[in-house]
Amino acid sequence: MMRRKTSRISPQPELMHMPWRISLPDKKPEVNKELLLYSSNKLANPISRAPKCNKYQFILDYTVQRVANANELEAILQEKSIYNSSFCTPNAEQTDLNSNDHFLPLEMFDDWEYDTFDPEALDDWRKMEALAILPPFTVWQRVHVLNHEPTSNYWEVRQNDTSTSHRIPRHQLYLPFEDPYKFADRIVAAQRARKMAENAIRFRFLCKHLSSGGCFAPGRTLEQSVLRRTSQEVYTIFKNLYESYHIALAVGKHLNQDSTMAIKQPTVGCLDSMKHTALPMADGSANIAYLLDCFRRTTLLCDRNVFHALRFVNQECEMVRKLPLFIVANEKPIPLEEYEKANLIQTSKTMKYLQNSWIERSTMHLHRLLSRIGDGNFNIKVTRWNIYSVMKLKRLVEQVLYRMQDALRDLLLDSTTAYVHYLVNDCSAILSIEDEAHYTWDGNLIDSPFEPKRPAVFYLTLEMGQETPYYSTDPDTFPATLRQLMDGILTECHFIHTVEPSFLQSLIFAENLFLSSVGLLDPIIVSRREALLEYYQKSLLPLKAYAARYTAYRELFFTNVKEFIEHIKSADKTSSEIKEDIAHQIRMRENLEHTVPLYIVIGPYWINVQPLREALIRKRLELTAALLKMLTEKLCLKTADVIGCYNTINERMCEKPVSIEHIYDIRAYMEDVPELVGRLEDRMRSILYEYEILDGFLHNLPDADFQQKWNALAYPRLVLKQLVSVKEFHESEVDRFRKQQFADEAAFTASIEDINAYISKFTTLYDVSKVSEMSVEVRRLWKALQELIEQGHIMNRRQELFEMAPISLNNLYELRTNFKAYRELWTVAADYLKLEETWIGNPLASVDLEGVRRGLQQTHDGLKDLLPLFCDQPQLLAVVEHFILVVESFRPNLDIMELLKCPYLEAIHWGQLAKEIGVKGKLSVDVGFDVFLEHGFRDHLETVRRVVVKAEQQRLEQEARWAEEERIRQIEENFRRARAERRQKRTEI
Q1: Please, is 38 exposed, middle or buried when counting C-beta atoms within 10 Å of its C-beta (0-12, 13-18, 19+)?
Q2: H or E element at residue 815
Q3: DSSP per-residue string spanning 542-567
Q4: pLDDT digits (tens, 9 = 90+) for 430-439
C-alpha cells in the first residue's frame, strides 16, 4: 500500500551529541600525573587505528632477514616522517597545554594488532638479534631479545657489546622478519592517535577554564522545574553539566572555523556545517558574546522549552522502542491457537498505543512546551504555509518526524528479529533435510534427532484417528498463521499518523499523512520471512513422518475388548495357548512403555504423546485383564464341574433308600467311588496347574473362585469320609426294609385272593348290550393282574436279597392264562363297534375303504380264533357268534361305499341318484354313510352302479374332447410361431 513518504534529511548536529564531561585542574595549565592517568584510561582507545586488513602480515619463514642494517630501517622510517626524536618520552609535568609539544607517551597508543605472532606460542624470538632504539633515542642499535611481558607488551633486550639489559615497549623493537613498512605504519598510527588525544585534552582544558559569565546557564523556568523535582545539590550538578555542554558547542564551532589556531577538537568537526569568516573581535569576552549570538541564531536549541520538548519526544520514542510487539517468551510451549490469540491481544494493545497514545502524548509535550515561547520561530499558531516553511518550527517538526520514524523502524526491526529468533529455535537438523519428497522417520520414537538449541515454542498433542494419527493442531496451518501474524502487524504500522495535523491545528494537512514504516518487501523483512517459512515448512516433514509411525498402533487402539475375547473363545484355545497370549500382551505393554515416549521435541514443536501412550498401554492392560478374566472364568467352570461331580457322587451316595434294591444299587455305586474320586483328583491337579498360570501373572482370584478352588481340593477327603457314614446308615436301613418285606408279603397274598374271586365272578357275565362297560372292566382287571405279577417278581427279588424263600406265582400265571381269552372277546368286540361308528358317522369322502376292509377282516379272524376257546361255555360262545354275524352283516356296505366314492360323480349325477331313489335332500360325497343307509341305498345297488358307469363314460368322452382341443391349439401355436420366424427373416422390408 502506497503512503506519503518524507525525504530523510540530516538531523541537526546539536541533537545528536551528548555534552562532554570535563575533569581537568582549575588553575595551572600543566599536565600532571592525574591527567596522564585520565588520558590513559579514557583517551587511549585507538579510535584512529588503521583498518584491520592493512595491519596483518603473513610471515612464511621467521629466519628471513627483511632489513640488512639500522641505516636502512631509519631511511624507511624517515620516508614516513618518523624521526628518532619522535620516540622521546615527554616530561608531562612541565608541559604547557598552550604549546604544540607532546605530553603523552607514545606507547600508550601502540596498536597491538600489528604484532606478527604470539610470543607465548612461538619461541623463535628468544636469543634473536634485532634492532632497537634506546635512550637517548639517537640511533637504532643491534640487540639480543631476552624476555617478554605479555600483559604490558614490554620486551627485555641487551646490547651486543654490553651486558646491560633494557626494558622497552614494542614499537621501539624491530624484529628482522617483520615488514619494515608495516612497522612504520604502526608508529605512524600511534603518533596520529596521540595527536588526536592531546588535542582533545587541550580542548577540554580550554572549555574547563573559559569564563562564560552566566550566558550558558539554565533559564529561570528550567531552574524552578528542576528544583521542584530534585534538591539544590542535584541542580548544581545539572547546571554545571548544562553550561559545560553549551560552552563546548560554542568553543568547538569557533575552533573549527578558525584554521589559524593551534588547538583543534577532532571529534566536533561534524557539529555544524556552516562556514564563517574570521571573528570580528579578538578579545575573549567579545568572542564569547558573538559566538553565543550566532549559536542562538543557527541552532534549534535556542530556547530551553525546545530542548525539553525534544527531550520528552525522545523519551516517548525510547518507550516505543521498548514496546512488546510480539509474544517472544513463554514459560512453556503453548498451542498455536493460544499463541495466535495472545499475539493478537498484544499487537492490538501496542497498535492502540502507537496510533493513539504515542501521537497524543508527543503532541501534548510539544504543544505544552512550545506554546510558552509565543511568537517567533516556534509560533505553533502560524497560519500561513510560506511562513511555516522557513521557520525553525518546520525543522523541529521534521526532527520529531524522523525521530518517530526511526523509533518505529527500530521497533519493527527489533520486534521481527525477536519474533523470528523466538520461533526459529536453532535446529540445524531441520534445515539440513534434503529429500523432502521421500522423507521418513527412520529412528526410534523416543530419541529425536531434531532437538533444538532453545526450548520448543508450540504445544501439540498426538491423537489417533480412524484412518491415521493426527495432531491437535493441523501442522499445515503453522507457516501461513505465523506469516500472517508478522505481515499483519507490518501492514498495520503503515497507518500511524504524523504529529503535524494534531499539533499545528491552524494549518490544513492531508488526511493520509502516515509515518514511514518498514515495508513488506523490505529486504530484511523478506529474508526473515523466508527464513521463518523455510524453517517451518521443513519442520512439517519430520512432524508428519513421526505421526505416520503411529499408524502401526491404530489396530490396537480401536480393538474391541469384547470382540477380541469372543474371538479367543471361539478359537477354543487351551490354557497354555491363553498363557502365551497373556504373556504376549504383557510383553507388548512393556514394549510400549520402553518405545513410546511421554513427549518428544521436534524442532519448534513440543509433542505430548502421553495421552496416546497411556491409551495404548491401557488397551494392552484391558486385553491382559480380559484374558486373565477369561482364563479365570474357564478355570472356574472346570472347577465347578469337578465340584459338581463330587456333589453328584455325594448326592448319589446320600440318597435316602426307598427299598432294599435301592440300597444294593447305592452299594454297587459306592464300590466305584474311590476310583471316581481318584480320577477327579487327577483332573483337579491338571486344573491346579492351570491355576499356577494365574499365579505366575500375579493375578488375584476373586474370593468366590478362591474358595471354590480350595473346596475342590478338599472334596476327596469329604467324599471318602461320607462313604463311611453312608455304609453305617445302610446297615440300619436293611433291618427296616426286612420288616417291611414281611408286611408286603402278607398284603400281596391277600391281593391275589381278592382278584381271583373277582375274576371268577366277572367271567359269568355275557350281556352283549354292555360291550363298552365290559371292555373297560376287562382292561382294568388285566392291568391289575399284570401289576400283581410284576409285584410278585419284585417281592421275589427282595426275598433273594433278604436271603429268604421265594413266593410262588403259579396261581397268578394260571389266572392270567384263563382270563386272556375273555379279555380278547370283549376288547375285540368293543374296538369293532367303535370302528363301525366312525365308518358310518364320518363323511364318506374321509372314509378309507381299504382300512374298512382290513378292519372287518381282522375283527372276523380274531373272533373266529376265539370259537374253540369257548366251546365249553355256551353263553360266551353265543356272544362270539353274535359279533361274527355283526361283522358279516356290514360287508355289503363296502360295495355301495366303493361306488359312491367314485371320483367322476358330479352334482348332476348325485341329483339323478336322489331322484331315482327318492331322496329329497342334497347328496354328495361329503355326507355321512348313515344318510345313505337311512334312504335304503343298499336296496338300489344296481341303480347306483348304472349312474356310476354313465359318469365314467361321460368323463372319458370329455377327456377325449379336451385332448382334441389341446392338439388343435398346439397346431395353431406352432403355425403362429413359424409365421413370426418367417417375418423376422424377410429382408425386402
Answers
A1: middle
A2: helix 810-841
A3: HHHHHHHGGGGGHHHHT--HHHHHHH
A4: 888 887 778 8
Residue 57, exposed/middle/buried by CB under 10 A (0-12, 13-18, 19+)? middle
**Cβ pair 862, 824 in contact under 8 A:** yes
List beta partners, residue 173.
132
> How is residue 381 annotated by DSSP?
T
Q: What phi and psi, each to the nearest 5 degrees, are found at residue 174?
A: -115, 120
Take residue 401 and report the three cell numbers written for it: 518526524
pLDDT tens digit string along 120-148? Answer: 878 878 878 899 999 888 889 999 999 99
Regarding beta strands 599-602 and 129-133, do their DSSP bridges make them parallel or antiparallel, or are they unpaired?
A: unpaired
Residue 635 CB neighbours (<10 A): 21
Which tens digits make up the pLDDT trace of 37-47? 333 333 334 33
Residue with grid cell 515561547, as numbered in its chain: 373
CA-atom Rg of the chain in angstroms: 68
Q: Nearest Cα to 4, choosing from 510, 504, 488, 351?
A: 510
Backbone angles phi and psi of 389, in degrees to 5: -70, -20
Most confident of 25-29, 43-47, 289-293: 289-293
Q: Which of 920, 917, 921 is nearest to 938 (CA)?
A: 917
**816-860 confidence digits (pLDDT tens):** 767 676 777 777 777 777 777 777 766 776 677 776 777 777 777
Q: Which residues are CB-contacts of 367 (< 8 A; sequence separation ≥ 6)? A: 380, 503
Confidence of residue 248 (pLDDT cuts 50, 70, 90): confident
Residue with cell 413266593: 807
Q: What is the pLDDT of residue 131?
A: 93
- Residue 379, pLDDT above cutoff 70: yes
Distances (CA, A) of 486 to 398, 415, 416: 29, 10, 7
685 in Cβ contact with 616 (< 8 Å): no
* Cell of residue 768, nine digits: 352283549
Instruction: Scan for cell 626494558, then name that residue.
Output: 167
Q: Measure CA 529 to chain center.
A: 30
Residues 761, 765, 770, 774: what is their CA dihedral angle, to the nearest 10 degrees? Answer: 40
How many Å apart are CA 234 and CA 746, to the nearest integer? 147
**384-416 pLDDT, tens per residue?**
989 988 888 898 999 999 999 999 999 999 999
Q: Among 449, 450, 454, 448, which Cα is nearest to 426's? A: 454
> Locate cell 497373556: which residue?
582
Q: Which of 384, 206, 219 is nearest to 303 (CA)?
A: 219
Burial (CB count within 10 angstroms: exposed 0-12, middle 13-18, buried 19+), residue 194: buried
What torsion do the CA atoms of 425, 427, 432, 438 make, to the nearest 10 degrees?
-90
Note the pTM of the prediction, 2 decimals. Answer: 0.51
Spatial distance between the Cα atoms of 23 and 848, rounded to a whole number of angstroms: 152
Residue 901 host element (H or E): none
Burial (CB < 10 A; 0-12, 13-18, 19+), residue 655, is: middle
Number of C-beta neighbours around residue 310 at 10 A: 22
Bridge partners (DSSP) of residue 607 are 460, 600
List the alpha helices (DSSP H) in 697-766.
Answer: 703-762
* Dist CA 825 CA 839 (whole Å): 21
Q: What are phi and psi of 169, to 5 degrees?
A: -70, 170
Three cell numbers at 635? 478355570
Nearest in space to 271 (alpha carbons), one of 255, 288, 287 = 255
- The burial of 328, by beta-carbon neighbours within 10 Å (0-12 exposed, 13-18 middle, 19 or more buried), is given as middle
Yes or no: say if 187 and 86 are a contact pair by the CB < 8 Å rule.
yes
Local structure of 787: helix, strand or coil: helix
3-state secondary structure of 847: coil
**Contacts for 923 with CB less than 8 Å, ≥ 6 apart:** 910, 911, 913, 914, 931, 932
**Separation of first and last alpha carbons in the chain:** 81
pLDDT band at 543 (very low <50, low <70, confident <90, very high): very high
